[in-house]
Specification:
Distance between the termini: 23 Å
Helix content: 10-25%
Largest sheet: 9 strands, mixed
Number of helices: 3
Strand content: 25-35%
Oligomer: single chain
Mean pLDDT: 90
Number of strands: 11
Structural class: alpha+beta
Length: about 190
C-alpha cells in the first residue's frame, strides 16, 4: 500500500485526533476531510491552537517529522507588549512544568512579529482593545513538549492568547485556507 501524506490548516476548536471517547462531544479531524484509514496526526495542536498540521499513514515518517531535527515555527499572540528582554529569555530557554517536573526548554529562535502575514487571517476574536494591548512573537522549536509555547510565553510574563503553527520543516501554512486539506510529499524532509 502506498503511504499518503496531508497538510491541514487546523481551525480553532478541533482536536488533533480522530477518536475521542470521553463524554463531551468534541470536533475531530475526520469531520474536516475523508482521510484514509490509518491516518495519524504528526504531533498535535491543542483544541485552542490552529495552523499547520501534517498527517500521514506512515508511522516511520511521523516519527521522523516529530524528531528533534525538524523545526516547528509558531506565531503566538500574547497578552501585553512583549519586551526585548522576554524575547531573549525565550531564546535562551525558560523553565516550565512538564509531567509534574521542572524542565528548561532548549535554546530556540524567537523574534517579535510586527506585521502579520495575510495568510494568518482574522481568526476568532480574542478580546477588544479595552482589555489592554497584545503583541505577536515567532518561536521556532525543535522540541515539542505538551503546550510548550503557551508555557514558555507565560514563564516570561506574557500569556498566549492565540497560537498558530506556521511552519514544519520547509512546509509552510501559507496557501492553505482554514479547514483546507491537501495531499503532499515529504521530499523536503528526506535526506
Amino acid at each position: 500500500m502506498e503511504q499518503q501524506h496531508f497538510a491541514l490548516h487546523k481551525p480553532h476548536g478541533y482536536l488533533s485526533q480522530f477518536i475521542y471517547e470521553k463524554k463531551r462531544n468534541k470536533k475531530k479531524l475526520g469531520e474536516l476531510f475523508d482521510f484514509p484509514e490509518g491516518t495519524m496526526a504528526i504531533g498535535r495542536l491543542d483544541e485552542d491552537s490552529e495552523g499547520l498540521l501534517l498527517l500521514t499513514t506512515d508511522g516511520k515518517m511521523s516519527e521522523l517529522v516529530r524528531s528533534k531535527t525538524i523545526e516547528k515555527e509558531y506565531f503566538a499572540q500574547v497578552d501585553g507588549l512583549l519586551t526585548d528582554n522576554a524575547v531573549e529569555q525565550l531564546k535562551k530557554g525558560v523553565e516550565i512544568g512538564f509531567k509534574g517536573i521542572r524542565y528548561v526548554t532548549k535554546p530556540c529562535q524567537a523574534h517579535l512579529v510586527h506585521q502579520l502575514p495575510s495568510f494568518i487571517g482574522e481568526g476568532r476574536r480574542i478580546r477588544d482593545e479595552r482589555h489592554g494591548p497584545t503583541s505577536w512573537v515567532s518561536i521556532t522549536l525543535t522540541e515539542g513538549k505538551y503546550r510548550q509555547v503557551r508555557k514558555m510565553t507565560a514563564a516570561v510574563g506574557f500569556p498566549t492568547l492565540r497560537l498558530i503553527r506556521v511552519r514544519v520543516g520547509d512546509f509552510k501554512l501559507e496557501g492553505l485556507k482554514v479547514g483546507e486539506v491537501k495531499s503532499i510529499t515529504f521530499d523536503f524532509i528526506l535526506p
